[in-house]
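Throughout our pipeline, every protein is held as a single compact record rather than as scattered files. This encoding replaces a full spatial description with a residue-level series of whole-number codes. The remainder of this section carries one protein's record, kept here as part of the documentation.
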Amino acid sequence: MNRIPVLEGSFVSEPEPALVGSRCRSCETVAFPASFTCPNPRCMDKDVAPAPLSRTGRLASWTTVHFPPPPPFVAPDPFVPITVVEVEFASEGIQVVGPLTGAGADELRMGMPMETVVEPYYADRDGEVIGWKFRPAEESNDD
């Protein structure tokens, strides 16, 4: 089956799953998804480069969505509620939102370690659409 990224260039699967944003070469500000200019209003330089994000971060927030989101999200029919988490990548100074996998909302706690994974979002006649998700991770010293 053909694997189609939900947002081209926003993540890698190998050697380990990781998000790819951008980093300003002038002020080091990181953005996700990648930006063509620095998002820092004090800089706004156009000299940005691709920047892989840390693979792990800390849970900053979460919510469970009980209604189908609008396109481009493709919801199953019947819709099954999904939990969306916000993960803080402290070394990059940003937070990223994505679906939760590998646990239920009742297992989450603020600040717990989370890791980036790449999994299918849905499949259609063109193939399997894949993207980033977050799952609970083992404690480590590099978060």
Notes: The chain is about 0% helix and 45% strand. The CA atoms of residues 4 and 56 lie 24 Å apart. The chain has a mean pLDDT of 92. The chain has one domain: 3-136.
